[in-house]
Write a structure and sequence with these properties.
Order of helices and strands: HHHEHHHHHHEHEHHHEHHHHHH
Shape: globular
Number of helices: 19
Strand order of the largest sheet: 1-3
CATH class: Mainly Alpha
Number of strands: 4
Oligomer: single chain
Distance between the termini: 43 Å
Amino acid sequence: MKNSIRKGFILLLIPVFIISCNLFDSPEPPEPEGELVKTMPYTQYLISYWTGLDNARFALQWMQHLGGVSGNHLRVDEYDLIPEYLDIVWDLYYHYIFTYLSEMIDHATAADAPAYRGISRILMAYTLGMMTDAWGDIPYEEGLKASPSYDEQEYLIVVIMELLGQGINDLNDAAGGGGIKPGPDEDPVYEGDLDKWKRAANVIRMRVMLRMANRSGNYNTLLNYFDNELFTGNHDDMLYYFPGGEKVNPHYYFDVKFRNTRVGSHIVDLLKENEDPRLEVFVRLNQNNEYVGTGPGEGLATASHVGSKLASSKSPVTLISYVEQKFIKAEVYYRMKQQSMADLAFEEAVKASLSYYGVSSPEWEAEHAAVENVTLEQIITAKYVALFLQSEVWADYRRTGYPELKPYDHEEDPEAQIPRRYVYPRDQLNFNLNIPDNAHEIDIYSRVWWDVE
């Protein structure tokens, strides 16, 4: 009964395909081309909506981009993340996103459609990365089974890199004329531009390699990827624009419509302290005509909402961007002691962020972007601002310890730290016979494989 209720709730959040059939006729086997054309745009929507749900939202609260003011979100602000809160986002991934992507890869192989297969593999790599970043070891090889075994994160990182490489190879084959290709209606993200999908795959590779380097200490390998086809500007960003109606931006859904969260005080204070021109874009004035954030556990209902450019019903979500790419380069150059290159990449990253939001300011940039001898703290803190509402900032914090955040402070746990992972969902703990033996012992302060001290 509980599973039925929860699945029903998922369906309230997202529109689903309603497929009618004649009960007296034998069903025709699905045509792989038709399944691809139908499923690709819907799956892209699901993925984009999912990136703003609680699998990212709870992390954004801990990183103080957001703050909970009621219900579950307020409890998460107090570091009281219980397994029941995570069933929905886990189910949405495995019962829908993972299932659809797996089916599209099979359909694309059957239809000899390398363009669809390449995009599906890249999206599988992207979403698998988000899942393992949050939970560490998760199912993959047996992900479609009722009680799947778990794969270790070290193995999953290799799988992600292989999927990205295979996806790029597929897109190269498609560029040579092979198979059907998606157009704007089938591919809302890039409207069938396979070159941009390849660039996105290479930038996702760089994101993943930061985790690998955090574990190994070898950042030199990343330099080799800088010669690949990468984003050339903000116009290459991997974005999804919500059409509105039933398909709305998730930040609009939770922050504006249901008002479970507000903007966090740390990001608001940082923007105000630096007189950052992005303040009025990221944050709305509250009822007192002020920009005010809510602190961890404070639950300030009069704090500001997310700005309308980011949280209207049709606002896009950013999956990965040119700005992130530039900050990755700045960090790697810094770590490899190529300071002048780090300074240049940092300046370009900050300027690109302001340009994206239409608030470029030569005077402000002269002080805050054109920095000589930029430090790692400056790079990651500026990236924390530029990637507002993108959960990649949680990975950056776990890797580097920046920006400096004050954890939620309460008497029961005076030595609390910023949480580092999610606990496993209730249904996995209670019903998956193959869950790892230590799953019940994992808490929000446990580290995933790549998160080394």
